[in-house]
Design a protein that fits this description.
The chain is mainly alpha-helical and 72 residues long. The chain contains four helices and two strands, in the order H-E-E-H-H-H. The protein has one domain: BFD-like [2Fe-2S]-binding domain (Arc Repressor Mutant, subunit A, Orthogonal Bundle). A hairpin with a 4-residue loop joins strand 1 and strand 2. The longest helix has 14 residues.
């Protein structure tokens, strides 16, 4: 339980999209809600719409999608 709690806290403070300050928890929530492409996650969260246009966050978002799909 402690590891799960630590992961939840880290998800809330770890920014996936630094341009828009979007936390990993929001990205994961969008993926769990059915966004299974980077474009769908972007539409649901606003990620990939900052100054870098997704250059920095796209690989991390794709990795989170891949992990989710592997586990489900």
């Amino acid at each position: 339980m402690e590891n799960n709690l630590n992961e939840q806290v880290l998800d809330k403070i770890t920014k996936v999209c630094t341009c828009k300050a979007i936390p990993r928890s929001k990205i994961k929530d969008a993926i769990k809600a059915g966004a299974h492409t980077v474009e769908q996650v972007s539409k649901a969260t606003g990620a990939c719409t900052g100054g870098c246009r997704g250059y920095r966050c796209t690989p991390t978002i794709q990795n989170l999608i891949d992990k989710h799909l592997e586990n489900n």
